[in-house]
Amino acid sequence: MSERPTAPPLLDVRDLTTRFITPEGVFHAVEGLSFQLERGESLGLVGESGCGKSTAMLSLLRLLPAAGRIVGGQALLDGTDLFGLDESDMRAVRWHRISMIFQGAMNAFNPVRTVGAQIAEALVFHGLAQDRGEAQPRVDELLEMVGITGARGSQYPHQYSGGMRQRAMIAMALACSPQVVIADEPTTALDVMIQAQILELLERLQRELGLAVILVTHDLSVVAEVCHRVLVMYGGVLAESCEVDGIFNQPLHPYTRRLLAAFPDLSRPEGKLVSIPGYPPRLNALPPGCRFAPRCEEVHERCLQERPKPRQVLPGHWVACHLHEAGAANDRT
Amino acid sequence: MPRAFRPRRLPEVGVPGRGAGMMKPTARWRERLASVVRLFGRNRMGLVGLAMLGLAIGVAVLAPWIAPYDPETTGRVTIDDIYARPSAAHLLGTDDGGKDVLSALVYGARVSLVVGFAASLISMLIGGSVGLIAGFYGGRVGNLMMRLTDIFLVIPDLPLMIVIVAMVGPSLWNIIIVIGILGWTGTARIVRSQALSLKERQFVLRARAIGAGNFHILRRHIFPLVLPLIVTNTVLVISLSILEESTLSFLGLGDPTTLSWGGMLNFAFTRGAISTGAWWALVAPGLGIVWVVLGCTLLGNALEEAFNPRLQSHHLQGEERMIARPAQPGASDA
After folding, report:
1. CB-based contact A14:A32 (threshold 8 Å)
2. Lowest mean pLDDT segment, chosen from A10-19, A280-289, B27-36
3. Which of A31, A73, A124, A156 is the most buried (most CB within 10 A)?
């Protein structure tokens, strides 16, 4: 990425490869994923269910399930490789530098402990408060930041509504003033009004606190609303990555195009809703060539044999597709 | 590397912190205590259980002042004193040795309660830690622990208990230990299965993402959720331990220096209480056992409710108040 003369990116992920080693075989969940995240930037991570979005994010925090193995790659946070840290240093990074808003806040709270106590937990862990009592002012402040009265911190999660729980989850994620917040489908299972409210809150907090946010979602409208850049994943690999306008105005990868076509268009109510025929590849039995080839309409001989590498075909626009190699004069950076 | 991750000072963001939500730990405890008191007010059966158990404990502690006769002293016994009917002198009659049944009952509460509490404490410590460790850490150690549990589970308790007590000798502490180390298997299995399911929950992942280690997660996130299970189990094991001690004593394997309720039953049964129609010598210790076991169970259920905040919500209560009707003139006011 030669056209970025400024300081190195806040988070620089290079060739992240994560596999699940199970008795049923090896699942290639994430393969050679690279991306950069600038300070204060909002990056959308889009893809179908099971394409490796969450796995990639959990890999960054090194919180994979027991069968998960990070087999290659680097994740440089301010120049420090997260995969090279020992476990105690990694624990210091978690939440303090990178925090996460979990999918379905309902389950991310311990039902028998008060919300305030659980937010205070993070503060006490990272030495920002000596004990629960000392953490209290900050807990109140965090809750009020997301529009919850501080007094409700002494209530239990089941006394909150769904939207409140999600907001409390956001408050918790911000507890230690992290630089990077990973929001893993923060708006699933919420109705449209609450969804808009949560996204607005996220956007506002990002602006005010200068956070870098990775928004994991399968909802393209969310991405269009909130994100600066988009990264489309398919079958564990990067398909396309560019500025948010580029994805919607000039999608290059056939998968991105089909994905946009599969999105209902309200301006053309008579238009038929198209789906992509077939299923995402099984991650333990991947096709030898391009992973999208079996479902691609523009497939040709080479796609079935050779895996396309991500190339920069336009400034800041990366695509992993054989169709777009002709225009890639400045590839291989 | 350690320098790089030193905590930064918190930036001032959003609304400045308020002090109103502050709660000192003592205040929190007071509030929790108040909620327990409120709960007993709502849960009458729990209150009954507490009263029953409290009475039994009170009687056991104050035995020397309550019992009309000292069971240790041996006076002159005539033929009329043996299995004498209940009378003013002996409210619950006398036993085969011509001694007061009421006094034996009062002193027997001490033995039964000490055995019940001590043995179940041992069971809980073993069962709880085995279950938590096997469930949370799993792996080879967990498997080994569970196979051990299986072995303990399939061996019939009573014959093994009889063999062990016969070998080590029937003293009070031997009986407590034997009951304790044979009674933990059920708890271990239940706690393990709960820990297994809890550790997969998302809040555990969230706690890990916060930077928590295994021990912290076990202590702060898994244990509070397993606690109600352990508490109810403790209560069950207390009553089981009392029953087991009674069984051993009934079979003649009790501590010969103390007389427990099971021992009273044993003497009454083997020395002709049934053939002479001396029902009081059998019914009194039998009711004593039932009293304590029932009290434990009622109390346990109420405690479970107190420890589990989910059960405290009002979803299942106050159905009659759920629909707020405007007050009608002439309608009977509840």
Report:
1. no
2. B27-36
3. A31
Q: Domains of chain B: which residue ranges?
A: 43-63+94-308
| Record: contact A95-B209, CB cut-off 8 A | yes
At B201, is the secondary structure helix, strand, or coil?
coil
pLDDT at B324: 62
Query: Mean pLDDT throughout B311-328?
Result: 55
What is the CATH T-level fold of the domain B43-63+94-308, as seen in this structure? MetI-like fold (1.10.3720)
- Are A202 and A214 in contact by the 8 Å Cβ rule? The answer is no
Which residues are CB-contacts of B296 (< 8 A; sequence separation ≥ 6)? Answer: B49, B53, B116, B235, B236, B238, B239
Residue in B16, B202, B210 closest to A141 by CB: B16
pLDDT tens digits along A267-288: 777 777 778 888 888 888 888 8
- Identify whether A271 is part of a domain: yes
- The two tokens of residue B39 are 């709960």
For residue A245, which of A231, A265, A224 has the smallest C-alpha distance? A224
CATH of the domain at A231: 3.40.50.300
A2 lies in some domain: no
Which of B10, B23, B211 comes nearest A92 by C-beta?
Answer: B211
C-alpha separations of B103 from A332, B15, B57, B99 in Å: 96, 69, 15, 8
For residues A86 and A47, is the Cβ–Cβ distance under 8 A? no
pLDDT tier at A98, thresholds 50, 70, 90: very high
Question: Is B21 in contact with A133 (Cβ distance < 8 A)?
Answer: no
pLDDT at residue A302 tops 50: yes
Question: B234: how many CB neighbours lie within 10 A of its CB?
Answer: 21
Q: Dihedral of the CA atoms B172, B105, B59, B30 (nearest 10)?
A: 60
Beta strand pairing status for A25-37 and A11-22? Answer: antiparallel
Decide if A151 contacts A136 (C-beta within 8 A): no
A 10 A CB-CB count for A22 gives 12
Residue A208 falls inside a structural domain: no
Indicate whether A80 belongs to any domain: yes
Q: Which two tokens stand for residue B273?
A: 């209480």
**Phi, psi for A206 (deg, rounded to 5):** -60, -45
- Look at residue A153 and tell me whether its pLDDT is greater than 50: yes
The total domain count for chain A is: 1
Q: Does A89 touch chain B (CB under 8 A)?
A: yes
Of B309, B198, B288, B185, the C-alpha closest to B246 is B288
Its domain, for residue A80, covers 11-95+220-324
Q: Chain A, 156-185: which have a CB under 8 Å from a chain B CB?
A: 156, 158-159, 172, 176-177
pLDDT tens digits for A101-146?
987 777 888 888 899 999 998 898 888 888 888 899 999 999 998 8
CB contact under 8 A, A92 and B206: no
Residue A202 CB contacts under 8 Å (≥ 6 apart), including other chains: A170, A183, A186, A213, A215, A226
Residues 6+ apart with CB under 8 A from A169: A101, A102, A105, A108, A109, A186
Distance CA A231, CA A16 (A): 14
